[in-house]
Amino acid sequence: MRIGLISDTHIPESFPDLFPQIIDGFRNVDVILHAGDLHQLDVVDQLNELAPIYVARGNGDEGSGGRIPVPEDDRIKEAWLLEWEGVTIGMTHYVPIPEAPPKLTISRWVARFFPEKTPDVIIYGDTHVESIGTVDNILCINPGSATFPHNLSAQLGTIGFLDIQDGQVDASIWQLLEHGIEPFDWERWR
């Protein structure tokens, strides 16, 4: 199973529409997880044409900064707890990484958003900085921003993939290029 990961698209604030590289990259995924701050329901509809989509409502989707709030939709919730092939995936827009104990910790976020079961994987956004790491035995993945990488000016950003096979997960981040995508160069941003 291949899951497309995307966050912080900020459409139309960043660009009028999703980059075609995103559409091409997600053409063969089984499902898409958008970790919030889409700002426009059209983004959900466009990605939903490619695969079923689940969206975490971001702070920018609430209408902050004078934006129009993203309307209620069954595909958008504050947090999702999903399971595929024996892997439990939680998703919410913001996760306290890095942690700032005692209040801003992964364990407190899990208790707040996923009280029924601790996820194996958490997908989040908000920071616009791509990240793959493990906290409290939970694989935490931020695909970064597709349009405002590292909170810089509007430009080609990043997306991610989560591949699940036989209960094993493999996460990757991909850079959007002028023509296509390529594996993210982690050394470039260190």
> What sort of overall outline do the alpha carbons produce when their principal axes are compared?
globular
Report the β-strand fraction as a percent range: 25-35%
Q: Specify the biggest β-sheet.
A: 7 strands, mixed
Order of helices and strands: EHEHEEEEHEEEEEE
Q: Specify the CATH homologous superfamily.
A: Metallo-dependent phosphatases
Contiguous helical run count: 3
The CATH topology annotation reads as Purple Acid Phosphatase, chain A, domain 2
- Report the CATH C-level class: Alpha Beta
Query: From the coordinates shown, what is the CATH architecture?
Result: 4-Layer Sandwich
Structural commentary:
There is one protein chain. The chain is mainly β and 190 residues long. The protein has one domain (2-183): Purple Acid Phosphatase, chain A, domain 2, CATH 3.60.21. It is 12% helix and 33% strand. The protein is built from 3 helices and 12 strands, in the order E-H-E-H-E-E-E-E-H-E-E-E-E-E-E. Strands 4-3-2-1-10-11-12 form a 7-stranded mixed β-sheet. The chain has a 5-stranded mixed β-sheet with strand order 5-6-7-9-8, with no helix packed on it. A hairpin with a 2-residue loop joins strand 5 (79-84) and strand 6. It is globular. The mean pLDDT is 94.
